Amino acid sequence: MTTPLAELDAVHVVHRARTGGLWSRDTVHALTAATLTIARGETVGVVGESGCGKTTLAHTLVGIQRPSTGTVTFRGEELWTMSPAARREAIGTGTGMIFQDPATALNRRLPVRRILRDPLDVHGRGGPKQRDERVKELMDLVGLPPGLADGLPGRLSGGQRQRVAIARALALEPDLVVADEPTSALDVSVRAQILNLLLDLKERLGLALVFVSHDIQTVRRMSDRVVTMYLGRIVEESPARDILDRARHPYTRALFSATPGLLDPIDPIPLVGPVPSATRPPSGCPFRTRCWKADDACAAAMPDAEDAGPAHTFRCHHPVDEGESTHDLVAQAAATAPAPTTREHP
Ligand SMILES: Nc1ncnc2c1ncn2[C@@H]1O[C@H](COP(=O)(O)OP(=O)(O)OP(=O)(O)O)[C@@H](O)[C@H]1O
């Protein structure tokens, strides 16, 4: 078996957060028992409701977030047992991060040329001439005209700024790029261009891409594999092509049923009540408080991961049957949902 490019093994991330009074602190379970591998060259989409831990997962993969427990491995080496200098080198040269808002992610006082040279300077890549050449190459790679090299980010359009951010992420030829909501701060008119650019670069450079987004249609279109998260847990991993009608976790099916334009269900699968707080996740399966299939077994223990075919695993005591239609699930959930006034959609 080939070594995965990146790997999380039983990773927990908890934060201590202020919850009310000056001295009152609570534990936030941002990521719980996350186990995931990323292969070279694949695109993995991460979906789930706001606050479910998508960004924490992404940041943990690229070493921005240190796990509270569990291991993070990159190119076969464990990140958090390396020396800080070795880790900086591994992360700095092996991974690239693209953030949501290029307006805040780029240093506004530096011209594009300096922004793109910075990683080359920090990691001592080539001599001055080679670094200048690389800056030109990078601008060309992301479709920025050379004339913008001396421009400040504030003078660029949102789309051009995100191209600069992408070029910076690629400066040291990483193997893994993580894009966290890379288009949500951009005008709708340029979103498709940036997504197509990312896909094109991924193909040309053989990158692995982890793509975090609320835009489920886009995740499905861009990804080879989709990871569904709920309240800090990975509840399903599925090939993107199967996600609509062959996902086995009730939450994945509910999430996708609530996305306009993907399926044509009568209605989204109705879920009861709000997402519980990450400071007090329910016992057992975290989705059980909203799931129409939940019973005592779901409260007793988090299910183990079960295989459902190639690249497909889920964690559920009462999975959706293979081939069960979303229409059937809508009817099932509607029949068991107790109080119509409190129904919410994911
Ligand atoms: N530094 C922090 N201190 C305290 N709590 C945090 C911190 N960072 C994240 N959290 C909490 O951890 C949980 C997961 O957050 P995260 O940002 O990873 O979720 P997300 O799925 O990316 O959310 P969104 O889609 O809204 O960006 C949330 O409950 C969030 O409030």
TrEMBL record:
Q: Which SUPFAM superfamilies match?
A: P-loop containing nucleoside triphosphate hydrolases (SSF52540)
State the Pfam families in the record: ABC_tran (PF00005), oligo_HPY (PF08352)
Cite the SMART domains for this sequence.
Answer: AAA
- What's the domain of life for this entry? Bacteria
Keyword hit for Cell membrane: no
Residue intervals of the ABC transporter domain: 11-256
Q: Which biological processes are named by the entry's GO terms?
A: peptide transport; transmembrane transport
* A GO molecular-function annotation: ATP hydrolysis activity
Q: Respond yes or no to whether keyword Nucleotide-binding is given for this record.
A: yes
Arranged from A to Z, the UniProt key words for this protein are: ATP-binding, Nucleotide-binding, Transport
The record's InterPro entries line, in alphabetical order, gives: AAA+_ATPase (IPR003593), ABC_transp_ATP-bind (IPR050319), ABC_transporter-like_ATP-bd (IPR003439), ABC_transporter-like_CS (IPR017871), Oligopep_ABC_C (IPR013563), P-loop_NTPase (IPR027417)
Q: Which family does it belong to?
A: Belongs to the ABC transporter superfamily.
What NCBIfam families is this protein classified in? Answer: oligo_HPY
Which protein, by its recorded name, is this? ABC transporter ATP-binding protein
